[in-house]
Amino acid sequence: MVEAALAGRATLLPVPKEDERETSLITTSLRADSEVDDDVAVVVSTSGTTGTPKGALLTASALTASAEATHARLGGAGRWLLALPAHHVAGLQVLVRSVIAGAAPVAIPAGFSAVELVWAVDSLGSGRRYVSLVAAQLDKALRDAGATEALASMDAVLIGGGPMPAGVAHRAAAAGIPVVRTYGMSETAGGCVYDGLPLDGVRVRIADGRVVLGGATLAKGYRNPVYPDPFVEPGWFRTDDVGAIDDSGNLTVLGRLDDAISTGGLTVLPQLVEAAVASHEAVAECVVFGVDDERLGQRVAAAVVVAPGRTAPTLADIRAHVATTLDATAAPREIHIIDEIPRRGIGKVDRRALAAWFGGS
Questions:
Q1: Integer distance in angstroms from the first to the last C-alpha of the chain?
Q2: What is the pTM of this model?
Q3: 219 and 288 part of one domain
Q4: Which residue, 142, 189, 204, 352, shows the most beta carbons closer than 10 Å to its own?
Q5: Cβ of 264: how many Cβ atoms within 10 Å?
Q6: Dihedral sign for Cα atoms in the order 199, 203, 205, 211
Q7: How confident is the model over 276-333, as pLDDT tens digits?
Q8: In this structure, what CATH number is given to the domain that contains residue 283?
């Protein structure tokens, strides 16, 4: 079906076949039985934080440009391991790249076991071998020696779907896993910036602090347009991400505007605070979020997963640690020790769930 879509013989609307409710929502909201423009190959459901599917309209040329630019950046076409749901753009692009490379992918469940991962990597055979994962999957693999060794044998392990915890990145580097950090979204046919540098044919600029993306991989727009329209400027997509570009052209994504915490008249980006908190030796993972505060408007809170063998840090410990790299205003005013970070979709941190859980404290 993907091959037919790329050849202009079909238009696909990928859905999670195991989730009837979500499938019904996608097919109804995105009007599966209604016509779309002839050049649209795939309509990828994307709701961001709204919960209402918008549907990125991706052409065959955009999907192909993304796949070819990915292979060019990684050192050539190869065989892919599919470990992400194909109805998400990251999983879809594994299928597209496989069609372009002329090599069938090897598929395993997103919640793969270590045994399944080792088998799948072995099944890829010789030649260049690639996989696209989210950070939670990489973290899981790193907990097993065999799975870790299997990933270390790959030519590239793409990590997307959101920021990667510093601890996971360090463990992966120590194990020799060739991690490539990717940034992108459904509206850009998947990852379009690798390790801070845009792929061939991709344009990146900063406007009013926001990351703005353009170029060959860009979607035509949305099936269900939104206001304000992020595609309003021809050839560009205005993201909700705050970023900066250095003198070498490297993009750093600092956080999302809709995650920003307004505290005492100041704006705090959670991702910056998370990086500071996560560098504490007792912290394995953390999420920073805002909760309502009568005096400040919002106060900065942090949910922390304690590192194995460590004693849970106190609020004073965390505040003092953060203050060594950031303004004290950004330091959390409360912390919550939890066993696991809540996630949604393909592994994105669910800040809203944490804010709902702890908002009354």
A1: 50
A2: 0.88
A3: no
A4: 189
A5: 13
A6: negative
A7: 999 999 999 899 999 998 888 999 999 999 999 999 999 999 999 999 999 888 999 9
A8: 3.30.300.30
